[in-house]
Each structure stands twice: as C-alpha cells, then as structure tokens.
Amino acid sequence: MAEPSRGFCALLAAATIAAAGVSAATPSVPPGAARRPNLLIITLDTTRADHLGCYGDERARTPVLDHLARSGVLFEEAHSHVPLTLPSHAVLMTGDLPSTLNLRVNGLNLKAGAATLASILKGRGYWTGAVVSSVILDRARGLNQGFMHYDDRMTVSSQPGSPPEERPGGEVTDAALAAVRSVKAPFFLWVHYYDAHFPYRPPEPYAREFQGRPYDGEIAYMDASIGRLLDGLRSQGRLDDTLVVVAGDHGEGFMEHGERQHGVFLYEYALRVPLILNWTGHLPEGRRVPDLCGLADVAPTVLSLMDIPPPARTDGESLVPLLNGGSLPSRSLYIESYHGFFTYGWAPLRGIMTDRWKFIEAPKPELYEWRKSETRNLYRSDAPEVAEARKALARYPEADRGERAAMESLLKDPSNAETLRQLMSLGYLSGGGTRPDTPGLLDPKDAIGIEEELREANEMMDLGNAREGTRKLLGVLKRNPQNVPALSMLGIAYMKAGQFDKAQVCFQEEIRLKPQMDTAHLNLGTVYKRTGRPELAEREYRAALALSPRMPEAVANLAQIMLGQKRTTEARQVLESALSAHVESADVYFEKGVLEAMTQNWEAARYAFTKVLVLDPRRDAAMANLGRIAFQQGRVDEAIAQYERALRLAPQNVEYLATVGSLYLNGKNDQAHALKYFQRALAADPYGPRAKDLREMVRALQAAEGGE
Questions:
Q1: Last residue of some domain: 486, 515, 549?
Q2: What is the pTM of this model?
C-alpha cells in the first residue's frame, strides 16, 4: 500500500484540500491457402499428473480430462524442464529450453522476436488469442508475442486494495469463450488455468466436497471449468476440426523431500506433468505413450500435426512417430532449477534424464532410477551413467555468472533498452550478486528447511509476534546470508517497528545481491520517504518502475512525493501513464483523486475516490475526501454522510469528528450536533495539537447553549 495519505484539516474554518487484451482484426486467409485446423492449448498450472483420474488417481474427480485422454493420446511420462510457471510456458510455446531462452525463473522476459507458436500461426493467417489467469504471465513478460488478443486481466487480490494477481477458472472460461465467439478465421486459442496453485481455495461446493483435500478440490473445479470451455466451443461450432492439447507446467511438493510447493527440486512430483492430445478423426483413441518426453516437444509436435514447418532449429522434437506406436531414437532430457540460486543464494540444480536414469548435479550429486524411486541415491563418482550425464550436461549453457551478468544480458535485449538507460541513469547495474560457481553454496537438500523457517517467520509476523519472527530471520541469515526473501522480510519487520536504519541496511543488501528486485527498490524508497529524504526515495521508486512499469505501489508513492512538492504536471504524467496501462489499484486512484482535488477538478476527483472504494471498500480516507468534495460543491448533507461513513471505520479520528462538527455548525447552523462532535473529538485526543481549539469551541457552544 502507498504511504498513509496526508490528513485533512478540520473544518473549524473554511478548509481546502491540501485491462485487458485488445483484439486486432481477424486476419484474412490468403486466397488458395489450404484449410487449417484450429488449435486449442489448455495449460494446467501446478497440476501433478498423479492427481488426475486418467493418470491413476482413483479419488480424483476429473471426468473432462479423463474423457479427453480416453478419446485421444495420453503421454504417461511427460516432464517439465523447469518447475516454474513462466519459463515452463515459454518452453512449451517455443520448443526451446530455458538454457536456450536464458529464461530460467519467473519475473524475467521472453526475448523479443522469439519464434512462438502464436507468431508462426499468425503468419499463416490464424487468429491468435490467449487468456491467462496469473500475473506471472502478464504481457510484460513477453509471452504475448504473436497473440492478437492477450487477456491478462486479473480479478482476485491477495488483500483488499492490492492489485489483482489471478482469476478463477470460471472467469477464465467465460473470457475465452467471449474472445473466440466472433472469430471467422482458423484460430489458435491458449487458455491458462491457475486454480491448482497455492493457496488452495476451491469454491463451493468443491470446498465442502473436498474437505481436507483442497488441492484436489481446485483440480476438480478446474476440470469443470474446462468442461464448460469445451461445451461452449462446441455449441459455437468452434470445436470441429480442432487439435486440443492439455499440458501441465509443473507439479507440487506437499513436503516430499521437504518441499511444500515447487521451484527448488527436480524430483518427479515437480517435473512429471499431464500431457494429452485429442483431435477427433486424426489421432488414435485411448493410446497411452510410455516414452519419456518433455514440454519442449509440444510445439514441434503440434506444428508437425498441423502440417506446418517448424523453426529451423528447436531443442524439442516432434512426438508424432509415437502417436501410432512408433519410436524415436534414444535421447536424454535436460532439466534445471535456478530458483533456489536466484531466490536464496543456494547452489543451482541441473540434470539429465534418460529412459532409466536421472542425474542431478549439485554439491552432493544424485543419481536415481527415477521410475522406481527417488529416495535411494545411487550416485558413485565412477558410475558410467554419471560420466555420460555430465557429458550431456556440458551441451547446455549454464546461467550467466552472477546476478549482474544475468541482468545485463536481459537488458541488452533491444526491447529493454529504455529500462537499461533508466537504471544506469539512477546509478544501478553496479551490483554483483552471487556466482553460481561460488564455493560453499548451500546444497538445496541441506537448505530446504529454511523455506519452512521463512514461512514460520511470516506467520509469526502476521500474528503480531515480530520479536520471534525477527529472531528466526536473523538465524536464517546467519546460515544463509544471501537469502533475499529473508532480507526483505527482516527489512519490512524493521520498517514496521520504526527501525529505519536497520531496514535500510537490509534493503540495500538485497539490492546489492539482486539489483533487478523491484520490491527492494520500492521498500528502500519507502524507508527514505519516511525518514524525510524525498530525493533518494524518488530515485528508488523510479528504479522500481524502470523494472516494473505497472507496479502500483511505486506509482502511488512517486506521485505522492511529487504532489507534496506541488509538481502536479509530473504527478499527472506518472498517474495517467499507469492508468492508461490498466493498472487497477486503490492507491493509484487515491493519488489521482488528490491530484484532481488540488487542481480543483472536483468531478474528476469524485470519480477517482469513488473508484478507490470499489477496489478497497474500507478506505475511510477516500470517504472523507468524497465528503470534502461534496462540501466544496455545496452539498452539506452529502458531506456529512460521507464523513459519518468514514467514522464508522475510524470512530476516533479527530479530524473527521471535528470536520463533521464544523459542517453541522457552519453548514447547517445546528449547534447541538456540532457540540456533540466537538466533544467526541476532544475526548478522542484531549492533549493533541487540536485540543486547545476544540476546548474553546466546546466552551463557546456550551455557553451559547446555556444562554438560550
């Protein structure tokens, strides 16, 4: 949330106020071009294969996916190459590995000019549309390349007033059906469902029916949403001659190997994903393919089935020979996870899978017969399987050495030139970070318990036990000084406690380790702002916005600094730029309201503060602002009603109480009600800065009352 807004002077005398993806036109099919099938790709975020009925879970309720598998082709051993949402989807859409794309963790960008399924099919006369359901896949991340319609509007916030971060499957289905309804050309539609991702909050009746199994309840709800999607397309006549692909992006841990969710390890619970192909009349029914394959194989397989030449080179290869019982030459599958490295400063994990073996390079290397077990490590340094795997690993480039190098590599992309310029002008890109080959990095197997300690520390903070939470975080940082989340959480704890010098140290170290961490710049800016250093605060907010132009907290705080310095023209540019980019934030609209009020654009201010309350219905300051606007426009009764509405949320607010008293006194000449509110204001803060004026007002009104 933005910094607390400025208070409003009581009206003892006259006072003054100090989405969505855009569809392009349907493309025309070139004259004489061959008719092409439609393509529907459905991605299931965080969905383990072994939690679907068609993959053997007898307790699952997934009739839609099960039917697609029975009437199509199911790949029993499909694997993600990286257990994270953004890079995994980038792999699926391009056929290239994270190591080729240099897109290894969430929050980075797919480089401009990538040969995606959308760009290839658009070039062939297809209408291309996507509906995604997590901010992780926001268009700024680059997966919108080639899509004529990219709907990344989120509707569910983590807390009131904060920007929406996801949306439920039912809304995703509705948006997808609306997007494709009027399309005439052959289409490629990608629909992404995020429901199975943590936290697991299935809607009713799934919450009740899956009590104790909320993850499975989310999957059941998602399956029903997919059923509505398919039924809707069928009723529109859009499902005929459509190749349907269903794929997961990664799985979930549930404390296997100590991992509660996903991202760190390369075990089967994280990498084995559903993969189903269904195309009536073109693919065999009920075929189950046991061969090892990866998500990089999806794009070349789809293009081959659609009789479209794939790019000259992709890391994946077509699985078409397997669809009719054929075979592919023996091959290996590359897997990696840099999440632990980039997030916590742990050693990165890279590995090779064959039909029998899984090798994971780590400080303590691992070797498993993965189809049998991943609990017994068979690693021996002299094992031939290890030598072969290490030879294979050498073919795949490692991540750039150090956070600075990774960031500079990203920013050298021409599409990021402006971001690079802004950060350099602000004095950044000088941070180092930890090198992946730094000796002594923690093996994730030894460090995974730290994730649980961070979760416990966060719970302690939420419950108000800051002392124990801080102690736990300090313990984590003693063992793992490169742990960026621990630094961030500790800095926030210090900031909330008013220990700004300590908070500043935490955030500065976070930026040194990870200069592209937008939230670190945001938090450091807030420290500077609260300690009276607006120039330094502005620099940090600008750095945050250079990295994340749609970051609402940075927009609101930067605008607030500008408004405090009467730089209304600059503030308007910052705010309107964010709003034109469909940033839906109560904080941004609040500052927009303050700006419009300062420039006496009363109706525009009224609209902005009303919008605040739509996004955050408990923002009492917005109600008070609406009251002041009503007063300025001569609507005294409405002004009183708005302030009294604010007082229901903040009954001890002296300024609100005194203002209502002034409105009754000066606007309605109602001394009795005015006296009551002035007395309440004085009782709320009998020794505050307004107490003297309030006492004089109370005495005067009491004297007038006694003289009647």
A1: 549
A2: 0.77
